[in-house]
Design goal:
With about 400 residues, the chain is of the alpha/beta class. The protein has ten helices and 22 strands. It is globular and about 65 Å long.
């Protein structure tokens, strides 16, 4: 992985930071009594790098960016593998190979998508303890229920200790309030022993507002030509966008390879701003398919309110070309209107004929396949009747439950 801290085979660690606008950067190694500082060498392409011989697993560090040093900004590593003291605290050097995986893990190859029975799970509310370890103890109950795939709500480190997860700011650091990286891997190990896949919900359309230091020292990470509800869009198609795209492609591979997740659910891909071909969704899908997907089942599930059937295309053999499936919100929204009578917001699109919308979405995938959307005041969706039923995840109600 080109970003962050990498342990070297002959000892020490290499620290890398991408910040094209920064002329000077240092890494601060935080000791029990005092800190030491190492200057990062400025390389081509906006990279800064230093090899520190005394930095090993467990070392705590932050980056100091800007000049002069007295006025520099102290920030965690944007590719931190763990931030135990929160998103404003120091990052920790993690040995990705230190976890002792169950011997049976080598034989685990996941499950075909057709066998997926999904259960959406929020680590913080699934048990009273709100930890990976506590959740792992209840996984046999879910397996007995017939669940074959868990969809874990976002884990990227967020401010505080309570959050849905959609305000994450450190994409590589699993939230410390739920436990350690080792405990997350142990949770996945337990699921696999039970024959259960584990997917992770990832948010690549924005960063949360608290703890995102990239705004302060790496403007190249954002593209002000595209506006989103969260401000400037993440830079997937502007100048310097190659490194930004790599950051997220490597993040997707990181969760699948280092933590052995069986797939990803990409949140709100309709909010991504990307004019390149292939776009970032398809680039990530290809990286997963041509990487870990060559050896085991790896699935990519989308949330996309634009109902873009192209992402769900199949090749002549019936295999997914890009995404495996999409959450079919049309099923939920039509049922919601039928059962509750609510017609506000996006439910207005289903108010006139909710039963017909439900029937079409169950039969053909999307209720809106190019028709005019009253809520959006424009045509919405693409033809989806040619796609297989397995291209859609239909749900009557998404529930994040507290297990008593």
């Amino acid at each position: 992985m080109p970003f962050g801290a990498e342990l070297l085979t002959d000892g020490g660690a290499r620290f890398r930071l991408w910040a094209p606008s920064v002329e000077r950067a240092e890494v601060e190694l935080i000791g029990a009594e005092k800190s030491s500082f190492r200057s990062l060498r400025r390389l081509a392409g906006g990279w800064h790098e230093a090899v520190v011989a005394e930095a090993g697993p467990g070392a705590r560090y932050k980056f100091l960016v800007g000049a002069p040093a007295a006025q520099s900004l102290s920030a965690p590593d944007p590719a931190s593998r763990f931030n135990p003291d929160g998103v404003h605290g120091p990052s920790v050097v993690i040995d990705p190979g230190a976890h002792a995986w169950d011997a049976r893990e080598a034989a685990w190859h996941g499950l075909p998508w057709e066998e997926a029975v999904l259960y959406e799970l929020h680590i913080g509310t699934f048990t009273s303890e709100g930890t990976y370890a506590a959740a792992a103890r209840l996984l046999p109950d879910l397996a007995d229920l017939g669940i074959t795939a868990l969809q874990i709500m976002p884990l990227a480190a967020f401010p505080g200790s309570r959050n849905w997860g959609y305000d994450g700011v450190l994409q590589y650091a699993p939230a410390a309030c739920y436990g350690s990286p080792h405990e997350l891997k142990a949770f996945i190990d337990t699921a696999h022993r039970l024959g259960t896949m584990v997917f992770l919900d990832v948010v690549y359309n924005h960063f949360g507002p608290d703890g995102n230091y990239l705004y302060a020292y790496c403007p190249e990470f954002f593209n002000s030509a595209h506006r989103t509800p969260w401000g400037s869009a993440i830079n997937f198609d502007g100048a310097e966008s190659r490194a930004v795209r790599d950051f997220f492609v490597h993040n997707a591979l990181y969760w699948i390879e280092e933590y052995r997740f069986d797939g990803l659910r990409m949140d709100a891909v309709h909010a991504l701003r990307d004019s390149q071909t292939p776009d970032i969704v398809c680039e990530i899908a290809r990286a997963l398919r041509e990487g870990p997907g060559r050896e085991r089942h790896v699935h990519l599930v989308l949330e996309n309110n634009r109902n873009q059937a192209g992402y769900l295309a199949r090749d002549p053999a019936g295999r997914a070309v890009c995404a495996t499936a999409q959450w079919d919100d049309d099923v939920h929204h039509a049922l919601h209107v039928l059962l509750s009578g609510e017609r506000d917001g996006y439910y207005a699109d289903y108010a006139r004929a909710p039963l017909a919308a439900l029937g079409r979405s169950l039969a053909e995938g999307f209720a809106y396949q190019g028709e005019h959307s009253m809520f959006r005041d424009r045509p919405r969706g693409e033809l989806s009747g040619h796609l297989p039923p397995t291209a859609f995840v239909g749900t009557a109600k998404r529930i994040e439950s507290v297990w008593n």
